[in-house]
Amino acid sequence: MPEFYYKARNPRGDAVEGRIEAASADAVATQLINSGITPIDIGEAGPRGDFVADLRRRLASRRPTLEDLILFSRQMYSLMRAGVPIIRALTGLADHSRNPKFADTLHDVVASLESGRDLTSAMSRHPDVFNSLVVSLVQVGENTGRLDEAFDQIGRYLDQEKDVRDQVKAAMRYPVTVLVAIIIAVGIINVYVVPQFVSLFRSFHAQLPLPTRILMATSQFTVDYWYLLLTAAIAGVGASVLYLRSEHGRYRWDRAKLRLPILGDILLRATLGRFARAFAMTLRAGVPLVQALTVVARAVDNAYVGDRVLHMRNGVERGDSLTRTAAATDLFTPLVIQMLSVGEETGAVDNLLDEVAGFYEREVEYDLKRLSSAIEPVLIVFIGGVVLLLALGVFLPMWDMAAAARGGM
Predict the structure, then answer these.
(1) CA distance between the termini of the chain
(2) Three-state SS for 304?
């Protein structure tokens, strides 16, 4: 999309200038007028002369976070409730966004609206920013004339999503920090500490204990072939990232992490809580059942669970009930299956799904509070084993030397 340079006057009469990406000069003029700015001169911009400024902008450009989307949803809800025209609202939010990529996205949405597209089509052009759940709720809001309520629901859902993710990150911060510290400490000991004892140990001219030999061999290999280890680590990380970005790799990893000891069960319940909350919200908004399952399968952020949800959709399309298809996935507890059955019988599936989401979220919150106490014994045993190996490797030869010295006296 071309970039245009403009000079204009703001509502106070002050001169302003800047650059805007738009389909045409007319689209730039419309954006400025809707923002309350009177254009004076508009022309197609040439290449930017300030390479440093352009580089900073590119480095600062990052994918919009949940905080950006939550703030956007709440602001759009307030602006829609106040009766502000949608193009003017989006233009104002884009001009004041702190995220350059998000600002560019909103400007492109505005340009699409000005070219005749509806908001749903304009937002669906940016799947990396607005996922299928957000787009579907916006579509329902447009069709029913309740766009403000749609943005309110989106904001509430994303806010709850952020709370769960923050709780998981907070619970994992301690064990991850401890493991990283151990790895760094072992690396420093291997590279700098153990080599100081090697010449002393070799002067014994005796068979060294097994822990000492293991420690010396590890240290020698690290010092001699550190570049190979570094290359292997970088290659391993790169290969892992590429594999996890593939469809097959993401599916295998998402399934494996749900089976991790201690943490896997928490991740599974958090994902199912996200599914229940999103499913309830889409049904309440009026999205058809089959379409709602398709949308939610993409919104759960887990390829394995998403695949199970798509199996539920296929079962519903064949004529099975929601309860039977949910039971066939082997994901839900009997209590949840029972609540879904009652919801189908009473026609209040959305309300009971909210209860299911609340049930899962309370369990996850309780387990996350106990996570540190559950992981601490494992970490203590691991740290103790590492320290024991290091201590035996360093001190056993010294004890043997001291014993030999006492025997020769």
Answers:
(1) 89
(2) helix
